Amino acid sequence: MVNAMPKIEIYKLERREEKEWDAYVLKHPNSTFFHQIGWKNVAERTYKHKPVYLIARKEGEVRGVLPLFLMRSMIFGKKLVSVPFAPYGGVCADDEIAEKMLIEEAIRSQMNAMQIIWGFGKRVSAKA
């Protein structure tokens, strides 16, 4: 019998997991202040952008995070941005597999957004 590798789960962050999110972000070497839940709260309350925070778990442990916001503009349409009004954003992950899966889930669930961008305008995906 062959042992299957543990599967990485990707899903939207739930409120009860916010402390765990921040604990992961605070220890990750590539994270910034803008990855923290506090920035999510500021952007959500101040600008009314809808947060779409994706989390990767493997064997119950957080293995990666991707903070996104759905932004709507009459001029520019809808787009998912990580993170708005901040110079840094994007994925923080333990490995390339978790990073790739977070990006793929963002693309898959882009909520009819025209594009997904983070940090200095880097485009991840654009609809045709």
How do the helices and strands line up, and which of them pair or pack?
Blueprint: E1 8-12, H1 18-27, H2 37-47, E2 50-58, E3 61-73, E4 77-82, E5 92-93, H3 96-108, E6 115-118, E7 122-126
Parallel strand pairs: 4-6
Antiparallel strand pairs: 1-2, 2-3, 3-4, 3-5, 6-7
Give the overall form: globular
Give the class from helix and strand content and strand pairing: alpha+beta
- Give a short account of the largest sheet: 7 strands, mixed
Q: For the CA atoms, what is the radius of gyration?
A: 15 Å
What CATH architecture label applies? 3-Layer(aba) Sandwich
Strand elements, count: 7
Number of domains: 1
Summarize the structure.
This protein is α+β, with helices and mostly antiparallel strands and 128 residues long. Helix content is 27%, strand content 34%.
Task: Give structural notes.
This protein is of the alpha+beta class. It has a single domain, classed as Gcn5-related N-acetyltransferase (GNAT) (Aminopeptidase), CATH 3.40.630.30. The protein is 27% helix and 34% strand. The chain has 3 helices and 7 strands; from the N terminus they run βααββββαββ. Strands 1, 2, 3, 4, 5, 6 and 7 form a 7-stranded mixed β-sheet that branches. Strand 6 and strand 7 form a beta hairpin. The chain is globular, with a radius of gyration of 15 Å. The N and C termini lie far apart (45 Å).
